[in-house]
Amino acid sequence: MSFCILLLLTLYGSIRAVQEEGRISSNLPMLMFASMFIAEVSAKQSMLTIAAFGKPIPLQEKQAYPGLGAMTINGATGKNFLIGFVFGAIVCFLPFGWIGLLPYLGACASALVILNRSYAHFGGLNGDGIGTANEIGRVTALIILAVILNLSLNGYTGGL
Question: Which of 55, 89, 124, 159 is 20 to 30 A from 75, comparing alpha carbons?
């Protein structure tokens, strides 16, 4: 419960940070729409990343069926990952150019960190790990986007 509350507070804080950086810009609604769009695409790609590179937790003795997470993990192939990755990169590139790709890549990297921790603690991946990658990927993308907007709107890395 504590981690859910922390995640929601971090999500709220990251949305507010993007909004505060966008107040300098003349088109705040479009900036917020594009930022949330990139965050959602990044979140879904982080789910595909963790499923494509993960292996399900081995079945226990009295477990009747493998679970929906195992079915998702077994269905995610390298080809699906590559198609999703290229399509997501194009979609994230459209609103912000190269700046839109960094949150996308950060969300994918966060999924690999979650996968590493899942292997260390559980010996595999389940559906809850896929959902975690979704939520953490969204927050990671928003935080990276807020930092990039802060730097770009203040003249360090160029504008939008």
Answer: 89
